[in-house]
Design brief:
Order of helices and strands: HH
Number of helices: 2
Strand content: under 5%
Shape: flat
Largest sheet: none
Number of strands: 0
Number of domains: 1
């Protein structure tokens, strides 16, 4: 039989386990992206940078639709 102290500890540790799992997935995807970029040539990296810059400019100028 579990005591109330053990139940409270379990309740506190459970929610914190989920964000760390999400963070590790995010870290894995970032690492994969970095690896992909490292394999790119300089020209490909410049093209990627220009595309990202255009997307950011579009996003700044876009209006939100409700």
């Amino acid at each position: 039989m579990t005591s109330m102290k053990d139940r409270r500890q379990d309740a506190r540790t459970e929610p914190t386990a989920h964000p760390s799992a999400a963070a590790s997935e995010l870290d894995a995807s970032r690492l994969a992206m970095v690896r992909d970029v490292k394999r790119m040539s300089i020209e490909q990296r410049l093209d990627l940078f220009e595309r990202l810059q255009r997307d950011a400019a579009w996003a700044r100028g876009a209006r939100r639709v409700r």
